[in-house]
Automatic annotation (TrEMBL):
GO terms for molecular function: clathrin binding; phosphatidylinositol binding; ubiquitin binding. Residues 42-174 form the VHS domain. The gene is TM1L1. It comes from Schistocephalus solidus. This is TOM1-like protein 1. InterPro entries: ENTH_VHS, VHS_dom. GO terms for cellular component: endosome; membrane.
Amino acid sequence: SLPHSLYDLSPKTLEASVISETQGDKMNFENKPTLVKKIEAVTKEHFYQPDLAAFLEICDNIKQDPNGPEIALSALLEQLEQSAATYPESASLTLTLLDFCFKNCGYQFLFKLCRGDYLKKLKNLIEHGPYNLGIWNRLLTLIKVLGLAFSDHADFQPINALYQELLSQSIRFPNVQSTEVELLKRMIPPLGIPGALRLAQPAANTSQFLQGIRENLKYASLNRHAFDDLLQNLARSPSDSIKRTQLQNAAVRLQGFQKGQVLK
């Protein structure tokens, strides 16, 4: 007959069972797509700070793989489901990486978010909350920023629909910076504009945009002088759309880094 518990197993059998389970976990990990392995590796709870270089590399990998958005969204939301309630450090890193992806992986990533069951998973996470206060607020902030940024974007209406549905359920969302909403909105230009022209669109008011970033970004644990130098260098050619994009991405990355610093 089968043993009723681990206590019924002989030491040799127990050792063999543990070895088999470990080998099975290793085999499962080795069989996963490389992108999933990278995501799991950088969102482990023993990392207290986000690896920004690794996050950006993952974003590049997602954009280079036709199946990248689907693979990454599945891995990120699965990681979030497993960690939100019990591993706040891992959940924080996962949310930071997810935020990076929203802001750096382009149209296809957000389009896939709206077409799969990913928004349903985000909704389920909210309905099973609240979690650690820092994780709870960051999850709600992520949904709110997405909903506000793409409220008038036809392809991303499911995002705003989720935000409005949660509002109707009396979910209390944290306040968000308007600059954060605008930064995300700028990452995905309006529909109907040819791709070659989208990047070339001038910023509405470059000097105000730069000043808004300076005022709204918090600089805890960051070198303010170095960042100001970066802003000045990029602002010297306000007509250069590539430099503006670099500036926007730098601001987004620093915001993601800032959010990953402290779990409230």
